[in-house]
């Protein structure tokens, strides 16, 4: 692991503090009592079986869902809807592949919002769009329509969209879904490099741990209504995972990869076996990309970023 010493940020207010949080949906308990603190500048992998509450927890951080108990603080402040310091990539991203809108215009949609018609705001929004496209190395590919981009390339533009407005915390919900393994690695590497460059905090949910192994600082594992946050060695263990799954779990390490097994079945294969369809989901949430970001606030910052990346995504 090449973690940048997230420990140095501990002791100060965490980037994300979750204290005895309970969450319910339709009267069903999703989380019962979750407590953890993410330090500023950490890259956290969020794992757990289908339905464990990964998406629900992210929505609670965005103020889209009331807490039934406990408190969440983002950069020391209570959760607020439309918080401009959080960038969000929702899990459901249906239909992007069929859209003929130019990549740049797609990214800009989330920046402009209601500000169309205000020349100064538009200039600032344009500068922000340039900034985020440079950050993900997508200035050139953003000239093409979404329908002509690969899944990995579209993913880069979605990441660019989340970076509008210069958020300090990114919530990325299943950015690897429906990508082939090569593109998965490219997306993880891209997020990691942008996260380091900006010094921001990232929560990155995924079905599978292995694509994240070399990038994440710590892992947040949800299951059985609770949450465990720690290093891979602390969390990806027989006792911790057996508790979170509510059944006996084995952890096998083979050639630098980790397999989480229930009996002789790999749990992520088991859980997500039904997710092979085009959109890959058996349930969906009412996300809308153009409004799911909480941006459109304060695009008047000066951005001095000039670097570009070239990633094989
Ligand atoms: N509107 C709703 N009303 C009631 N239950 C819901 C609602 N939305 C989601 N759920 C349930 O809440 C639980 C948590 O869902 P959530 O989407 O947060 O899980 P997840 O960990 O993100 O799962 P996945 O890996 O499939 O994305 C699931 O059992 C889901 O079926
Ligand atoms: Mg989810």
In short:
By secondary structure, the protein is of the alpha/beta class. It contains eight helices and 13 strands.
CATH class of one domain: Alpha Beta
Write down how many β-strands occur, each being a DSSP E stretch of 2 or more residues: 13
- Radius of gyration over alpha carbons? 19 Å
Order of helices and strands: EEEHEEEHHHEHEEEHHEEEH
The overall average pLDDT, rounded, is 83
**Looking at CATH, which topology of one domain would you report?**
Rossmann fold
Widest sheet: strand ordering: 6-7-8-3-9-10
Q: What's the shape?
A: globular
By CATH, the superfamily of one domain comes out as P-loop containing nucleotide triphosphate hydrolases
The secondary-structure class comes to alpha/beta
Main sheet makeup: 6 strands, mixed
Oligomer: single chain
Counted by DSSP, the helix tally is: 8
How are the secondary structure elements laid out?
Layout: E1 16-25, E2 28-38, E3 43-47, H1 54-61, E4 69-74, E5 77-78, E6 86-89, H2 103-112, H3 119-135, H4 151-163, E7 169-172, H5 181-198, E8 201-205, E9 218-223, E10 226-230, H6 232-235, H7 238-245, E11 250-254, E12 257-262, E13 265-266, H8 267-272
Parallel strand pairs: 3-8, 3-9, 6-7, 7-8
Antiparallel strand pairs: 1-2, 1-4, 4-5, 9-10, 11-12, 12-13
Bound molecules: adenosine-5'-triphosphate (ATP) and magnesium ion.
Residues 25-26, 28, 30, 48, 50-56, 91, 283 line the site of adenosine-5'-triphosphate.
Walk me through what this model shows.
- The chain is α/β, with parallel strands linked by helices and 313 residues long.
- Among the domains are: 12-85 and 167-223, P-loop containing nucleotide triphosphate hydrolases (Rossmann fold, 3-Layer(aba) Sandwich); 93-166, no CATH class.
- Helices cover 27% and strands 23% of the residues.
- The protein has eight helices and 13 strands.
- It has helices spanning 54-61, 103-112, 119-135, 151-163, 181-198, 232-235, 238-245, 267-272; strands at 16-25, 28-38, 43-47, 69-74, 77-78, 86-89, 169-172, 201-205, 218-223, 226-230, 250-254, 257-262, 265-266.
- A six-stranded mixed β-sheet has the order 6-7-8-3-9-10, with helices on both faces.
- β1 (16-25) and β2 form a beta hairpin.
- α3 packs across α4.
- The longest helix has 18 residues, at 181-198.
- Residues 1-11 and 274-313 have low confidence and may be disordered.
- Residues 25-26, 28, 30, 48, 50-56, 91, 283 line the site of adenosine-5'-triphosphate.
């Amino acid at each position: 692991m090449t973690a940048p010493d997230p420990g140095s940020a501990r002791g100060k207010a965490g980037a994300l503090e979750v204290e005895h949080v309970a969450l319910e949906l339709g009267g069903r308990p999703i989380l019962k009592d979750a407590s953890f603190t993410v330090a500023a500048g950490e890259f956290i992998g969020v794992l757990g079986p289908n339905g464990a509450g990964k998406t629900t927890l992210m929505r609670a951080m965005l103020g889209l869902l009331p807490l039934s108990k406990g408190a969440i603080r983002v950069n020391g402040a209570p959760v607020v809807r439309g918080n401009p310091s959080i960038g969000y990539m929702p899990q459901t991203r249906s239909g992007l592949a069929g859209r003929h809108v130019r990549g740049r215009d797609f990214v800009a949609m989330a920046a402009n919002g209601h500000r169309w018609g205000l020349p100064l705001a538009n200039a600032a929004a344009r500068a922000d769009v340039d900034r985020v496209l440079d950050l993900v190395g997508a200035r050139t590919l953003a000239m093409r329509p979404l329908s002509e981009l690969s899944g990995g390339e579209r993913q880069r533009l979605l990441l660019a969209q989340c970076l509008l407005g210069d958020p300090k915390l990114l919530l990325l919900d299943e950015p690897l879904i429906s990508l082939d393994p090569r593109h998965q690695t490219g997306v993880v590497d891209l997020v990691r490099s942008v996260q380091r460059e900006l010094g921001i905090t990232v929560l990155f949910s995924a079905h599978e741990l292995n694509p994240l192994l070399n990038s994440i600082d710590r892992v947040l594992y949800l299951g059985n209504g609770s949450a465990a946050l720690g290093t891979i060695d602390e969390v990806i263990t027989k006792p911790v995972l057996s508790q979170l799954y509510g059944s006996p779990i084995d952890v096998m390490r083979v050639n630098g990869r980790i397999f989480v097994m229930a009996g002789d079945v790999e749990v992520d294969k088991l859980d997500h076996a039904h997710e092979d369809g085009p959109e890959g989901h058996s349930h969906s949430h009412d996300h809308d990309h153009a409004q799911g970001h909480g941006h459109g606030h304060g695009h008047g910052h000066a951005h001095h970023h000039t670097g570009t990346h070239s990633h094989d995504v």
